[in-house]
Amino acid sequence: MTLISISKASLEEKSIASRRWKSALIGLRIGSIGLELQKGQPVSVASPVRFADKAKLSWTRLSWPDISDQRWLSPVILLAGWEVASLLGWIPSRILAAPSAVLQTFWRLTIDAELPSALAVSLARMGVGLAIGVTTGSALALVAGLSKLGETLVDPPLQIIRPLPTLALTPLFIVWLGIGETPKIALIALGVTFPVYLNLFNAIRSVDPRLMEAGRSFGLRGWELIANVVLPGAMPGFLVGLRYALSVALLILVVAEQINASAGLGYLINNARDFMQTDVIVVCLLVYALLGLGADSVVRAIERRVLVWRPAFLKS
């Protein structure tokens, strides 16, 4: 029994010693790998770091591509989901037409010249109202911005009228001007006047006084100073007001064309509503959206043309 116990004890000591020896070898191997990595030397194939690098490389190869800059992807997915839901009957056509049906309707209305003629009428309304509103707002801003007396006479009445919602004046305009084209154009002109006036008035009052002094030192006086210093310095603010005025004009146009219209995009929408033609309604709404994008692009082009002297444009 003593010999057996001694042999068991010796075997246990040997196993403990072998485990310690293995752990020491593993520690030495890990230390050598660390030194190789610090020196920039390649690690041997048998090291666990190499296997980890291979696993990381394989995972990188299987990862998704970077789509952070693909702004077109989400609209395409939305349109595809819309089309599939319409084909499966989840979205009835009486609720919302499928994108394919909208495209076919757009093509049909374009070929029949129904959509271009309606678009021309709506553009004429918006253009006339925009021209009247921009002219009126600019003239009032010049009077109020260039003279303290002008500000006293012009600004208080405009600040009283400005908080009133333009569309809330529709019934009063119908009583005054009837139900023809005049109230539609007047609503657009009134809505456009205020953003142009406010932005141009603030831009005139914010012109750098050093520019004014520089103009006077070159002998500019009166209208020469206004035309060569004040108005160019206020042009960025005017263009900001113009961009905002275009969006307001488009919004009022959408509502104004619902008032007893006999032509235009609003007329198409009213007829389509009566016959539950959602494809025609969606086509007209898309045209309104394209009008807004086009108007904004026009103002941006004007900015690049007119404001070439600004440092931001010079850098670009």
How would you describe what is shown here?
It contains 13 helices and no strands. With 316 residues, it is mostly helical. The chain folds into two domains: 13-59; 113-315, MetI-like (MetI-like fold), CATH 1.10.3720. Helix 5 (114-146) runs parallel beside helix 8 and helix 7 (170-177) packs across helix 8 (181-205). The radius of gyration is 37 Å and the shape is extended. The model is unreliable at 1-8 and 43-52 (pLDDT under 50).
Q: Can you tell me the residue ranges where pLDDT is under 50 for at least 5 consecutive residues?
A: 1-8, 43-52
The CATH class of the largest domain is identified as Mainly Alpha
- CATH topology name of the largest domain, in short, is MetI-like fold
Question: Given the structure, what is the number of helices?
Answer: 13
Q: How many runs of DSSP E, i.e. beta strands?
A: 0
Features:
mainly alpha; 316 residues
Task: Please summarize what this structure is.
The protein is 78% helix and 0% strand. By secondary structure, it is mainly α.
